[in-house]
Specification:
2 copies of one chain form a homodimer. Helices cover 31% and strands 28% of the residues of chain A. Chain A has 13 helices and 17 strands. In chain A, a hairpin with a 2-residue loop joins β11 and β12. Chain A starts with a strand and ends with a helix.
Chain lengths: 367, 367
């Protein structure tokens, strides 16, 4: 059994946690990123793309390449793919990068979405507001994240300012979806097309940033889990996706509605490090390395994840709690920055909520 | 919360697993070792002691120093200790390195041992055989491990050859202990003198090498666990030990008898990565960094560890078993070499034995 070498485009906390999960399987990691002292720098070599011959060096060092972000340069990924396998492949990446193509893909596969219209002129924007009604969300089709590149139109009076701020780019107009909560489903697909799916997570946001995930999502019927599994399996097969994929969903009166996908491990899956038999990070590494996938079942009946945002908070309060596990990313404090997370495992919902309540200072921290 | 930097003397699998446990707590690692491509090289910087100024560089980079082996140069440890804290301290190290001092320490603390005699002349050896009876085990007081530096004397006819092979060194003669099984107890002590103890492990050896540990040790009374806890807590306090300590024990008709101690994380504690709320590696890092200790309780009712010795074996058979977790050390195959281990968690003894039996090829592998 030779050591496998995985190349990662990026060197943030997702790469760090992939490496921590992969090293025990005799997988080593090389990161391709210009950042210094990034979260991954202590779990592998980091190659700065700006040094001469960097890309050739990187490609020669690795057996397979993956990436941390759906904003990764698709041209770079395709170029690397001519020399060494890149998983997930370019189809997963390009479709995740383009909101319109993404939604068209969902629709073509029978995955429910909000109503939407392509908008490339001001006339098309006005027509979209008439067809979809207010409020609508106007988004750039590419590069938007964390609320950037989007505007909410509540009435015709908002059309002018929205068009002025976003009209330079290709846009998508989406009808508002009335939902009771946000859920996500995460799955891994291996090189033989075999798929494993994690239980649905319920995701609690504050100021546009994920704060808490609970798994399995409370009061979730087996029908809902089955619907999520059908959605993501269909999507994985269509994309011929290899590795982990995440699908964000709205829970609505008429069933699950897909919001967006990410071709990668996801913040709402961080609970799986202690919470699942095999974490999302380990399953991603297994999939891209050609190893068999591991069980996605919860180790305990309940699990939760609390993000540490902006400020480190009281580390000892986490270390002193037997049901809690600390995962820091080696980053310095900065407003709205994800610095780490706390994983909680429990044998009942009441026990889990009791532990979560001890960390209210983290949940409410708006650093 | 600043990142802490731990220096490790050595760069083997114990350092690797310390780093994998410590990095999520924002602890980084620097290793001091001349080996290349050793197990720790992918989880921190490795400084070669043979490069100019190596020791000064190492000391400047770290906040605290620890070591992987009881065979670490005690003079080096004391020298480093003048500049940066070293845990465990020199008392723990020196007493672990000298079989006679170790046994004297056990006795002085009321910890049962085999009968033993100091042997520095052939006459003392003959006297020891008369007082202790045959068989006896003759060992060098220092540097012996894995059966080296020792001889078993079954009758007076063995005295000559034993004296010839070992008589150049200071020796200890030990009476044979009749025991039903070998156990070990592992504990961690923090910088305030607080101690946490893991459940007793039952250790199954083959050809002098640990093959399987089961935790908690089967059919173990609460009295026996309490006796082990009393032994190790007394020892930790006496040594003012900071970090993890392991005490190897014989289970005899008259109670537990101490064999030897190791001032470090131990092969018989590797089960704790998935098996315990907090692994021995994480608790060692917590202790030496001044963090509070974590719970040592089993996450599931039963846990086991199977060593992978000499040959890698069928990795996929481990990855395909939901209750099993693979931990490789990045080493190439070599006879009798510890290459990795398999951790098993289960909710009953029967379930655990059923999983262990699937890995008989690993248990019986004598690579």
């Amino acid at each position: 059994m030779a050591v496998k070498r995985v190349g990662v485009l990026g060197s943030g906390q997702l790469g760090r946690m992939m490496a921590l999960a992969g090293i025990p399987l005799d997988v080593e990691f090389v990161f391709f990123d210009e950042g210094e002292n990034t979260p991954s720098h202590c779990v592998g070599k980091v190659i700065n793309p700006k040094t001469p011959g960097a890309l050739q060096t990187f490609i020669k060092m690795v057996d397979v390449v993956t990436y941390e972000s759906e904003n990764t340069d698709a041209g770079l990924v395709e170029g690397i793919g001519k020399h060494v396998p890149v998983f997930p492949g370019p189809d997963s990446l390009r479709k995740s990068q383009h909101r319109l193509t993404e939604k068209d893909t969902f629709r073509s596969l029978g995955i429910a979405t909000a109503e939407y219209r392509r908008v490339s002129t001001r006339e098309e924007l006005e027509k979209a507001t008439q067809e979809l009604g207010f409020p609508i969300v106007l988004k750039t089709t590419t590069m938007g994240y964390d609320g950037k590149g989007q505007a909410v139109l509540r009435s015709a009076a908002d059309i002018d300012s929205a068009w002025q701020s976003l009209g330079h780019a290709e846009l998508i107009a989406e009808a508002f979806v009335t939902f009771s909560r946000e859920l996500s489903v995460i799955a891994a697909r291996d090189q033989h097309g075999h798929t494993v799916v994690y239980p649905l997570a319920e995701n609690q946001h504050h100021a546009g940033i994920l704060r808490v995930s609970r798994v399995p999502a409370p009061d979730c019927s087996t029908e809902k889990q089955a619907q999520a599994e059908q959605f993501i399996t269909t999507l994985l097969d269509h994309l011929n996706h290899i590795g982990v994929l995440t699908l964000e969903l709205f829970d609505t009166a008429s069933g699950l509605v897909a919001n967006e996908m990410a071709p990668r491990v996801h913040n709402s899956g961080h609970w799986s490090i202690e919470g699942a038999e095999t974490s999302q990070f380990e399953n991603h590494v297994r999939a891209i390395c050609g190893f068999p996938l591991g069980s996605t079942q919860n180790r305990h009946s309940h699990a939760a994840m609390i993000n540490i945002i902006g400020k480190n908070g009281d580390r000892n309060s986490v270390l002193n709690e037997p049901a809690a596990h600390l995962h820091m990313y080696g980053k310095s404090e900065r407003s709205n920055r994800k610095l780490g997370h706390i994983n909680i495992v429990a044998d009942s919902a009441a026990e889990m909520e009791s532990v979560i309540s001890k960390f209210n200072a983290f949940v409410n921290e708006c650093g």
